[in-house]
Amino acid sequence: MSTTSVQETPAPAEALPLASARESLAVLWPLLRERRGFLLLVGLAGLVGSVAGLVAPWVIGWLVDVLPDASDGAVVLVGAGAIAVAGVVGALCTWAGQTWLARLTEPTVARLREMVMDRSLRLGSAQMERTETGDLVSRVAEDAREISQAATTVIPLVVQSLFTVVVSGVGLVAVDWRLGLVGLVALPMYWTTLRWYLPRSGPIYAEERAAFGTRASRLLGGISGSRTLHAYDAQDSELERITAASGLARDLSIRVFYFVTRAFSRNNRAEATVLALLLVVGFFLVDAGMITAGAVTTAALLFHRLFNPIGALVGMADQVQSAGASLVRMVGVITMPVPERTAVPKPGPLELSGVSHSYGGDIAALVDIDFALAPGEVVAVVGSTGAGKSTLALVAAGSVVPSRGAVSLGGVPIADVDPVALREHITMVSQEVHTFATTLAENVRAPRPEADDAGVRAALRTVGADWVDDLPDGIDTVVGEGGHPLDPMQAQMIALARVELADPDVVILDEATAEAGSAGARQLDTAAAAVLKGRAGLVVAHRLSQAVTADRVLVMERGRIVEAGTHEELLRAGGRYAELGRAWFGG
Ligand SMILES: Nc1ncnc2c1ncn2[C@@H]1O[C@H](COP(=O)(O)OP(=O)(O)OP(=O)(O)O)[C@@H](O)[C@H]1O
Questions:
Q1: Pfam families, per this entry (predicted)?
Q2: How many domains are contained in the chain?
Q3: Torsion angle, alpha carbons of 160, 165, 169, 175, to 10
């Protein structure tokens, strides 16, 4: 008796790697350097803006010195004018700096996202299959969003604060080095606050976010299940649960508030102490005739100017950390080593020899498959649910690496071919086709971005997608998420047009979009036939019509090929295929 278990089971899902800070910088720096013009402009705006910020403390100190001897109020007007001009310059610099920073960071984040996608495509679906589901998606979507948000909200503030702190610090030393030294006393005090704040803030915020999540899901659950709750008279107990979740979220928010207030009060204490120290030292220096009262005023105002930016830097440190964590996650994928796959497939048969596959667990999805698809031949695969048809298609397309056995095209093992290069030879349309959120033309063009509109239209004509002309903007209609809605059959036709444009040697189809016998099924069959013309095709038959027109039919049961032949031969044989055929015909 044969056994259907496969010995080599795949390794458990692995998490994608994280990059080190050095690797992240090595990836980020060339991207920023590409836009160094903006980098310079951001630096310039920050510097000029911060220097403009020095004008007010300096003018006020000057007024303190000159006013007692002034004959009229003209000096005040001069001082006020200088402060007003500096204010306008500062505002302009902030605005320009933020605009330039966005033009520096947004394309950089977009580029990082593309690099993650590119690397994951190069690694190939077979390797990506081994990683935790959702990990890649969250790195492309959530981490990119986190960095992008930080880039537009947190980073401008951090950059501006850093400039203000550095320039004001230098200004303070320039006014009088002794007062500058007093100002430095604040540094260790700020440092201890940061050391106290950072390790505690992350977990507290995470707990608060988790509590918000629970409250939201309880509320939504209560609303969507209100009928059931009424039916079972269970409103009160559900209300109690919602109140408890809500109470927890409220208590955590209050805790977060106390915590942040404590951090800021630590900073305030440091600031008040050092400011007092600065005034005392200033008093003695003025008394000794070493500096003027105006200079002490300027120094005190400059030191006071540091309060807000330093508070902002402390407050945003965890958001910067969180953006940093997202960056190392994205760069982790970008720096994943891509195995050398330089083999070039040759025209010839697609062969599966000794192929067995298990997704883990005891049941084998494929067992000892030996099968060759000749160039130009169309083979249909039939079988009951769970027989292994989709797995066979995925293995043949190189999307799943079988636990045992080999797959080759023209004698070249496809495992040695670069996944992107392999798609030029073997293309698969699966049950879940993805429509990208862009124009319909771009969707068709995906495998061949250089194709022109005429090529796109020709591919759509080949698959009989005449309905495209009725769309609001024809092939330029935006489809996908948030765009013009497409029904599953239209999405499938776009996927087929994509294959037509890609022009591979082997097409693997596994669609189950239309009900057998429906007008949609007939349209899809015609579209598939057009795409298969002149190419080898492996078609997972979800409708009998797909098997009838094939050159050969494979019948699968429990991971094995149990029958093979033409439609007529298999019907005559009266075996499993004939049985399936009767079920299909409903007779
Ligand atoms: N990603 C997966 N992880 C774990 N088991 C899987 C996975 N995909 C398929 N299987 C299992 O492998 C076996 C073969 O499934 P497969 O989808 O290849 O069959 P199928 O003939 O295409 O079925 P259907 O017609 O329902 O799509 C089934 O037992 C199925 O439960």
A1: ABC_membrane, ABC_tran
A2: 3
A3: 60
